[in-house]
Write a structure and sequence with these properties.
single chain; about 425 residues; mainly beta; 11-stranded parallel sheet; about 5% helix; globular
Length: about 425
């Protein structure tokens, strides 16, 4: 087990060739062999002109386009047929705009500084790995993404995005249906997977209003296989604000750390985080839905870690594992998390190891199992910590993306957060990810 711990904690190398491939296409638009397209702009045959025109006798807003955005240096497909061509032509510091549509490309950056934006909402502009490889790879680079969806990427490390010694800033981005999986289903020997959607090591990651939906880390039939961070792994500084990690699916057979996310080896600041609907099965051992490991500091405020399930042989922590770092956990829900371990389980809500003087205040920690705390005193009843059904509006759907984790008016979590903080209506802060928003 120690050898596995060292393997996962120290980071992994990635040996993919730095190549740019792919041709872009867009639904309802035009495309060429060079890969250009004008998404959803073709006629739809129903009295309108695609999503951007009129239909059924009514009018809609014009389809978003790169022409609507200021401070753009290069436009795809107006200036270059594909994103790969635009990246090759761009000077460092440039902003590239992608028109709405689905762009099937796989891009690598080495020692570059770029900003890539989508025209419109994230769902309008999609970078699609098509299940054949990783979508984006960075080495010694700085990349800002805004208004995009990253989907369909596949790799052992970072199916959607792999970043090494890089700065990565994502704003208003969705990452969906990306996978970390063995590159060969018949692979032998120890296989270490990581970050179905994002795997970053040695740099800094900042995520603002980012959604992780239906990503996976799946060992398949490879028996000697484990991993870190089912949807997200960051080995470096990490700042998360308004992040949702929903419906992550994990299957491992040796060991894993962070079924949904692992943040390690840097300063961690997390606000308004939701992790829900994680499903982890297999064998071996698992450490928590969210793993914080050897960080220089760890601040988690206004989080909802709710309705996650881990079912492997040995479960050493449930909702949150914190190892060899500080912890400041405030205003958060840890509720309805289920651990199923045939050999052992402990700390179904929180497990601490080598954590000095943790701060836990104004949290609601409810229904996680018979032994919710390990390596710490039970905090319930002190510093505003409570144990009560949060009374979320709706948690009945099979997919967490369809849940409504806002609070019922009768919820004991309403007006139960830090009394020094206020919600937007001027009342005392609520517990949970919606508190203060």
């Amino acid at each position: 087990m120690l050898s596995l711990l060292l393997l996962f904690a120290c980071g992994d190398s990635d040996t993919d060739a730095d190549t740019d491939t792919g041709a872009a296409h867009t639904d309802g638009g035009t495309s060429t062999d060079g890969g250009s397209g004008t998404g959803d702009g073709g006629t739809d045959g129903d009295g309108g002109t695609g999503d951007g025109g009129t239909g059924d006798g009514g009018s809609t807003a014009p389809e978003p386009s790169c022409a609507d955005l200021a401070d753009v240096d290069l436009r795809v497909p107006e200036d270059h047929a594909t994103l790969a061509e635009a990246v090759a032509a761009a000077a460092d510091g440039s902003t590239i705009c992608l028109a709405p549509g689905t762009w099937s490309e796989q891009i690598s950056l080495y020692e570059r500084q770029l900003r890539i934006v989508g025209a419109g909402a994230p769902g309008d502009t999609v970078l699609d790995g098509s299940g054949t490889g990783r979508v984006l790879k960075l080495r010694d680079s700085s990349l800002e993404l805004q208004g995009l969806t990253i989907r369909g990427g596949v790799a052992e490390l970072g199916g959607g995005i792999y970043a090494s010694d890089s700065q990565l800033l994502l704003t208003d981005v969705e990452l969906s249906d990306n996978r970390a999986q063995p590159d060969d289903p018949g692979k032998t020997g120890l296989v270490s997977l990581g970050g179905g959607a994002i795997y970053s090591t040695g740099g800094r990651v900042e995520l603002v209003e980012v959604g992780f939906f239906d990503n996976a880390m799946d060992c398949g039939s490879v028996a000697e296989c484990g991993g870190v961070g089912g949807a997200l792994y960051v080995g470096g500084d990490a700042t998360l604000w308004g992040v949702q990690i929903l419906d992550t699916q994990v299957r491992t057979f040796t060991g894993s750390y962070g079924s949904a996310a692992k943040l390690a080896d840097g300063a961690v600041e997390v606000d308004h985080l939701t992790i829900a609907g994680t499903g982890h099965e297999g064998a071996g051992y698992a450490w928590a839905v969210l793993s914080l490991y050897r960080t220089s500091s760890a601040r988690v405020h206004q989080a909802d870690i709710v309705g996650n399930r881990i079912a492997v042989d040995q479960v050493y922590a449930g909702a949150l594992s914190v190892v060899n770092t500080s912890l400041d956990l405030q205003g958060s829900h840890l509720a309805f998390n289920e651990l199923i371990g045939s050999e052992s389980s402990q700390g179904e809500a929180i497990a601490l190891d080598w954590v000095q003087s943790p701060v836990l205040a104004w949290n609601n920690i409810h229904d996680n199992g018979p032994s919710p705390f390990a390596g710490m005193d039970d905090p319930i009843g002190s510093d505003g910590n409570i144990d009560a059904d949060p009374l979320f509006v709706d948690r009945t759907a099979s997919s967490a993306r369809s849940w409504d984790l806002r609070l019922d008016p009768a919820s004991p979590s309403k007006d139960a957060g830090d009394p020094a903080l206020l919600d937007t209506d001027g009342s005392r802060r609520d517990i949970g990810a919606f508190g203060g928003r």
